[in-house]
Specification:
With about 140 residues, this protein is an alpha+beta fold. Helices cover about 30% and strands about 40% of the residues. The chain has helices at about 5-20, 25-30, 55-65, 125-135, and strands spanning about 30-35, 50, 75-80, 85-95, 100-110, 120-125. The chain has a six-stranded mixed beta sheet with strand order 2-1-6-5-4-3. Strand 4 (about 85-95) and strand 5 (about 100-110) form a beta hairpin. The radius of gyration is 15 Å and the shape is globular.
């Protein structure tokens, strides 16, 4: 049986992430997912460039979470699905270790294979805010 991508599937992943259960989301990522954040240029401070599942967890998610007091609070805004492609808009709110807010808006374009694994993600966000978090915490 072939996987059918739906908005409810994506919302289920986001809702689990919203209560800090990232396991279902991470398991949905193909190990070799091609995840581009912001730009094709690799920048270790702004966290732009290309990542696979392991490198995203180790180089982006873990380091960002360590700069935030209680992790990210995620709020889904819009999810649209066309065939195997999901357009996902959400915002995240958090308090940085220095007490300042981290409120960022995200847009993901996610492409899934026939097994329900994300094989490509294009992520758009305020990378300048990410740089500030790492510079000030």
């Amino acid at each position: 049986m072939t996987f059918k991508l739906t908005p409810d599937f994506i919302l289920g992943l986001l809702n689990e992430a919203a209560v800090r259960n990232l396991k279902p989301f991470i398991e949905t990522l193909d190990p070799e997912v091609r995840w581009r954040i912001g730009s094709e240029i690799q920048d270790d401070v702004a966290k732009t460039g290309f990542y696979n599942r392991a490198s995203w967890v180790e180089q982006v998610l873990g380091p960002l979470q360590s700069k935030l007091k209680d992790g990210l609070k995620l709020f889904p805004l819009v999810v649209d699905v066309i065939n195997n492609k999901a357009y996902v808009e959400f915002k995240c709110e958090a308090i940085q270790n220095n007490g300042k807010p981290y409120n960022n808006n995200y847009m993901w374009v996610m492409i899934f294979d026939e097994h329900g694994h994300a094989t490509e993600i294009r992520e758009y966000l305020d990378t300048g805010l990410v740089e500030k978090v790492f510079a000030e915490n």
